[in-house]
Design goal:
Strand content: 35-45%
Strand order of the largest sheet: 1-2-5-12-7-10
CATH class: Mainly Beta
Helix content: under 10%
Number of domains: 1
Oligomer: single chain
CATH topology: Jelly Rolls
Number of helices: 2
CATH architecture: Sandwich
C-alpha cells in the first residue's frame, strides 16, 4: 500500500480496461473515464481521511478491523456520520454510498486501532476529480461544523 493524499494508505485493485467517452458523461468530468475503479483503503487510529470530494459516487465496503466513521457534509450543511463495521446491532453497516460532490472524510471509531475498507468509484476515479477541502473556505461555508472541519482538514 502507498500513502494516500487524504491520509491513510491505499492500493488500487481494479481499473476497468474500458472507458466512457467524455461526451457521454456530465460536463463536470471534462474527459473520458474508466467505467469503474476499486481500492483497498487502510486507516489507523490517530490518523484521518481529510475532508475532500470527488465527482463520482463512491461505494464504501467494510472488510476488517474496527468500525470506521464516514463523516459527510451535504450542500445544505447537514452533517451525517455513518459507521462502517461488522456489528449491525451497534448500528454499523457493511456498505455505504457517498454521493458525488459531497464533502466527506473518515476516521477509525473511538477506541479502535485500524479499519480496512474498500472504495469503488463509477465512473472510475481520476485524481483530477479529487478536491481536498481547504479549512478556511469550508469553515466559512459551514461555520456550524467548525470544530469538525478543524479536526478533519490538513490545509
Amino acid at each position: 500500500m502507498e500513502p494516500h493524499p487524504e491520509g491513510g494508505y491505499f492500493r488500487e485493485t481494479y481499473r476497468s480496461s474500458e472507458t466512457v467517452a467524455g461526451t457521454a458523461l456530465p460536463g463536470r468530468f471534462g474527459g473520458e473515464r474508466n467505467f469503474s475503479t476499486a481500492i483497498y483503503f487502510l486507516l489507523e487510529a490517530g490518523n484521518f481521511s481529510a475532508l475532500h470530494r470527488i465527482k463520482s459516487d463512491e461505494a464504501w465496503h467494510f472488510y476488517a478491523g474496527d468500525a470506521l466513521d464516514v463523516i459527510e457534509i451535504d450542500e445544505q450543511g447537514n452533517l451525517r456520520v455513518t459507521s462502517l463495521g461488522s456489528d449491525p446491532e451497534a448500528g454499523e453497516i457493511f456498505q455505504h454510498i457517498v454521493p458525488a460532490g459531497r464533502w466527506f472524510g473518515s476516521r477509525v471509531k473511538a477506541g479502535g486501532s485500524f479499519s480496512l475498507v474498500g472504495c469503488t468509484v463509477s465512473p472510475g476515479f481520476d485524481f483530477t476529480d479529487f478536491e481536498m477541502a481547504e479549512r478556511k473556505k469550508l469553515m466559512e461555508q459551514f461555520p456550524q461544523h467548525a470544530l469538525l472541519i478543524e479536526d478533519l482538514t490538513r490545509i
